[in-house]
Amino acid sequence: MNTIRKAIIPAAGFGTRFLPATKSQPKEMLPLINKPAIQYIVEEAVASGIQDILIVTGRNKRAIEDHFDHNVELEYFLKEQGKWSEYEEVLEIAKMADIHFIRQKEQRGLGHAVLCSRYFVGNEPFAVLLGDDIIDNRSSPALRQMIGQFETHGKTVIGVQPVLPEEVSKYGVIAGRQIDNLIYELDDLVEKPHADKAPSTLAIVGRYIIHPEIFDILEETPPGRGGEIQLTDALKTLCLSHGMQARLLDGERHDIGDKWGYVKATLSLAMRSVDLRDKLHDFWLEQWKDSIK
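Above: the chain's sequence. Below: its structure in token form.
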């Protein structure tokens, strides 16, 4: 089967880098302008043709489920007030896709979170989108780029983008050979290598299309870094046994997994907003004037 119908969005982490804000609310619900971060991920999946989405959550993540459900009282209030654009916006959130939820009952790593989706996925290839990476390309969503490659070549695909050499130790990076401008045939995946030992500067950026054989591999994958089941470890095995490709993704990537990345993403999205960009520009001019006085 070379059609991707289902997507997994892991969202069970504690979000410790954003404490205390994430003490009682999911980090995935932190807003970027007026939408929670996870909504951008769901919108990318839907824009890529996915209509069946499983969000893997944990305890204290109920707000995610509520966000993608109807809020009858709010919808009624908006209609009564004649706020039709707001009404349509909140209504569309509940209708954008068939969204399902399952809890990861223990914090055992990304690989385990993907394994929790086994019975939802069944025996077909599927997409995984990580919520810490927002890739902004409105004309051709990142996942859509990867689906097109998968439909042509039929191999597991990993999304990559270049990073600075001094940053490779923060990421998983690929080892392989380039077969055209955008596609790499992979030999290996290396998790957080030292800069002088990295096989490339192409980092894995939280987008995957994976064959279902990964589930049997994950069942046998021992805990790795941090005592957790690492998806990268299982993908290395899948790469050696079934082959794998990478896709050089076109789009502006925002790593919102840390505070500075989150701030940059907010500013970048504000600059794309008709309502906000002029105000932001004027604000920065004022700040600049004050700083040189």
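The longest strand covers residues 183-191.
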